[in-house]
Design goal:
Blueprint (H helix, E strand, L loop, with lengths): L2 H23 L3 H9 L18 E11 L5 E2 L3 E3 L6 H4 L4 H14 L17 H11 L7 E14 L2 E9 L3 E2 L16
Antiparallel strand pairs: 1-2, 1-3, 1-4, 4-5, 4-6
């Protein structure tokens, strides 16, 4: 290959690289005009979270039913693994993996009303793993039952919106204990 051909190839590829880099930064009128002139979609757009970026977070909450003098459902608690300290977060952040696992498991469960969640959901891998993670959090020896829910949290400006996206069943942790239906309280 001649020196001229290599130079032309380098100029074309260099220009393509520059236009591609600008396209990542500025997606305004200028890049739309250029994109129309470049055939076959040769101008890449690396939008890692497109076309539907995540606009909400899934949170795993649970509550415990306790026997005893002050029996009943305890307040909901959130299972969150935290984040690594900022000085090492960029290099080593195992907590992110655990939080991402919760999010991925939540995405595999059906959302909507209780009729959507069939009995087969109770034996799905996602449900069993989430239930197992919640059961491991129980420290109160008087706890006889547990229930978990997935809450979707989104932000609209300064306003925070929470919605229950999945409500698991109440699970008896002891064979001798039975829940009284009058004591059951469901989140609204």
């Amino acid at each position: 290959m001649s020196y001229f051909a290599v130079t032309v190839c380098a100029i074309v590829l260099g220009a393509w690289w520059v236009v591609s880099a600008i396209h990542q930064i500025d997606s305004g009128r200028w890049t739309r005009r250029i994109r129309r002139r470049i055939p076959l979609g040769l101008l890449p757009g690396w939008t890692f979270f497109a076309p539907n970026p995540a606009r909400s977070d899934s949170r795993l909450i649970w509550r415990e039913y306790v026997d005893g003098a002050h029996g009943g459902w305890l307040p909901w608690k959130e299972l969150h693994f935290g984040f690594a300290p900022p000085h090492r977060r960029w290099l080593w952040n195992p907590e992110l993996v655990l939080n991402k696992a919760i999010s991925d498991l939540a995405n595999n469960l059906p959302s909507g009303d209780e009729e959507t969640a069939s009995r087969t959901t109770l034996i799905s891998a996602s449900y069993v793993v989430l239930l197992s993670a919640v059961v491991r959090q129980v420290e109160n020896p008087e706890t006889v039952a547990i229930q978990f829910a997935l809450v979707t949290t989104s932000w609209d400006g300064a306003d925070r919106h929470n919605a229950v996206s999945f409500l698991g069943e109440e699970h008896d942790l002891g064979a001798q204990s039975r829940l009284r239906s009058a004591d059951r309280v469901h989140p609204s």
